[in-house]
Amino acid sequence: MSSMNPLMLVIMYGGTTTKVAIYSGDKDLYKETIRHSLDEMKSFKTVWEQYDVRKRDITGWVNSKGFRIDEFDTYVSCSGLVKPCEPGVYEIDEKMIEDFKTEKYGIHTSNPGCCLCYDLGKEFGKPVLTVDPTTDVNMMKIATYSGHPLIPRPNSYHVLNQKATAKFASEKLGKTYEQANIIVAHIGSGITVGAHHQGKVIDVNNGIESDGPFSPVRTGALPVGPLVDLCYSGKYTRQEVHNMLGVEGGLAAYLGTSDGIEIESRIQNRDEEARIAVEAMAYQVAKEIGARSVTLRGEVDAIAITGGLANWKRVVDLITDWVKHISPVYVYPGENELESLAAGALRYLRGEEELKKY
Ligand SMILES: Nc1ncnc2c1ncn2[C@@H]1O[C@H](COP(=O)(O)OP(=O)(O)OP(=O)(O)O)[C@@H](O)[C@H]1O
Ligand SMILES: CCCC(=O)O
């Protein structure tokens, strides 16, 4: 390997996508978003059943670009769900893998995804890195209370894209990240809204299962009494309820699809059910932004909307209309997760940053 320009396979696992890139040093040679249909995702009883399909798709894509899956110097993956961690570069190790396999910190497709990457590194004798793990140690203590000591309030969120976006917004304001107060709403297949206070995320909704707004495929927070009754109704298994919350909730549950382009076309054709469901989702995102403005005591330099749904003008306009009294609203469609993963891994491989231990 050239330690200055290592060949890296970088992978990000979303609820409905696998994002992949091949980097030579800081140059991205190829990049792709592999989309998985809702029907395909729903056909898996657990996220672990996605392992083989995602591996096949990643390997096929790598081969289609003229590379072999075994020829990378380093494999870089977004992390699965972890205990609260300092942002930084980590080598994925057995302890992390155990937490992913036992789903100690929740169920998410990045748990098997990260194991997949780890298995590749192990098979080919190469390091496997992750950057800025999904759970942040910087939450305010009072923000970790849920309302019952048996149920802590975790905060798995889109750390990579939240931080990258907050940095873009700070730059636009002529400030450093450490000087700015930014609210970032990442609206993708999962939705997380973070309060970035002078370079630290001090409160954010947990993107996984039942916190914050509903999303294209997740329920977000639900009234808990009816949820308890549903769990004990005898109609659903534990796994089915988890799937209902995390894979088939939100727009998918209301409208039978999570595809924004298809839903927009239904709205254009006067589908009122679709219009109201989308307005409800946007309203919940706006309310979450309002909550984060309290976290920042009203001192909000900017609100930044990002993620795949930020491509959807209707949704961005609806949210903006609710929150524009708080601060300026900036929009950054898509995400910068692969770039952030590659840049972090490279800082370590070039000796500019030390590894953190999980
Ligand atoms: N131009 C568009 N118009 C409407 N909806 C869109 C558009 N582009 C993407 N979307 C919607 O955005 C959502 C996907 O967002 P994204 O690509 O961020 O998902 P992901 O990677 O699976 O999830 P996450 O961002 O939570 O990791 C889907 O519901 C998709 O239909
Ligand atoms: C890992 C948390 C990001 C998401 O909500 O999917």
UniProtKB/TrEMBL annotation:
Belongs to the acetokinase family. InterPro entries: Aliphatic_acid_kin_short-chain (IPR000890), Aliphatic_acid_kinase_CS (IPR023865), ATPase_NBD (IPR043129), Butyrate_kin (IPR011245). The lineage of its organism: Bacteria, Bacillati, Bacillota, Clostridia, Eubacteriales. Its EC number is 2.7.2.7. This is Probable butyrate kinase. It is found in: Cytoplasm. It catalyses: butanoate + ATP = butanoyl phosphate + ADP. SUPFAM superfamilies: Actin-like ATPase domain. PROSITE patterns: ACETATE_KINASE_2. It comes from the Bacteria. GO terms for molecular function: butyrate kinase activity. Its main location: cytoplasm. Keywords: ATP-binding, Cytoplasm, Kinase, Nucleotide-binding, Transferase. The gene is buk.
